[in-house]
Specification:
Layout lengths: L11 H21 L16 H22 L4 H30 L11 H12 L25 H16 L6 H20 L18 H22 L8 H14 L10 H24 L5 H20 L1 H14 L3 H50 L1
Amino acid sequence: MTDKNAARPRYELLDGLRGVAALMVILYHVGECFATSPQTQQINHGYLAVDFFFVLSGFVIGYAYDGRWREGMSMGNFMLRRVIRLQPMVVVAVILGAVTFMIQGCEKWDGTSVSISAVMLSLLCGLFMLPSLPGTLPEIRGNGEMFPLNGPSWSLFFEYIGSLFYALFLHRLSKRWLAVFTAAAGVGLATIAIGNASGYYHIGVGWTAEGHGLWLGLVRMTFSFSAGLLISRVFKPIKTRGAFWLCGLLIVAVLSVPYVGGETMPVANGVYDAVCTLLIFPAIVYIGASGRTTYAKSRNICVFLGAISYPLYIVHYPFMYLMYAWAWRNGYGFDKVWPVAACVIVGSIALAWLLMKYYDGPVRRWLSMRLLRRSRGLEKEGQE
C-alpha cells in the first residue's frame, strides 16, 4: 500500500516555535536555581511551555495520522511509531541523569546518601518510562519527582498516555464529539488553575505523583492534546504575515510574565494560566500552522530550532541538577552562577545538535527500517 502521507509537507514554522518554547524552558530551569517560591521564579510561566507542546503534539499527530487509520494502520503500528520517535532520546537522557547524579555524589537534596542499587533501579524505571512514587526506593532525589534522573521525562510520560488515548478512541471521535470532549477537559483544566489544585494558583502540575499529581497532570495533558487534535481537523489557513516572528515573540512574552496578582490576589495567576492554555496556545498553533516561511534565513532558523527542540528539551536537565547542587552547596547567587549557567545553556544546545545529527536521527531511521517493515509484514500476514 502506498503511504499517501509520506509526501505531505512539514509545518516548518511550527517546528521553529517548538524550538523557541524549548529555549524558554531552559531559561525557566536556570531561574529555578535562585527561586525561593513560585512567585519569585524568573521566566515565571515557563512551565506553560509544556501545555504548548501538548497542543502542538495533538495538532501534528492529527495531521500526520488521522488519514492512516482509513488506510489500515493498526494501534500497534501507531504506538510503535511513537516509541521510535520518542524513546531513543529518553534513553540517552536517563543515562546522562544517572551519570550526573553519581558525579553529584549520590545524595538526595537533603544530603542523605543513596545506594548505587537505588540509582540503578531508578535508571531502569526511567528507561521504561515507569514513574517513581514518592518515598519509594527509585525516588532518589527526595523531592517527589516521578523521574528523578531526568525531571522533564514526566511530560513524555503523559505524551505517551496522550498517544494511547488517540489510538484507543480519540481518532474515532467525530469533530462534534471531539469538541465536546475537549470542552469538558477545558473545564477540568480551568478548575485546576482557578481552584488552586496546585496550592500556588498555577497549573505547573504533573511532575510528581505526590497527592493528586498524576490526575492533575492527566487533565492538563488531555485538554491541550485534544485541543491540538481538534485544530488539525477544523483547520483552514488564514492569511498571516510574519507568523513565525509574531508567534515566537508571543510565546516568549507569555512565558516571561511575572507571577500575576502577587500574594494579595494569587487567583489572578490561575486565571492567567487558564487563559493562556485554553485560548492563547491554541491560537498560536493555528496562526503558526497558517504561516509560511518565505525567506531562506527564517526557514533555516525554523529548521534548526525544530531539529534541536526535542533533544534540547529532554537532555538539558541532568546538567541543571549539577548546577543546582554546586550553587546551593556553596550558597552562590546569580553573580557567581551566571557564567556556569551560560555554559550549561550553550553546551546543552551543542549537545542537542550533536545527538540529533549523529544519534537520534540515525537510530530512528534504523529502527523504522527494521521494526516498521516487520510490523507491516505481520499486519499483512494477519489480513491474509
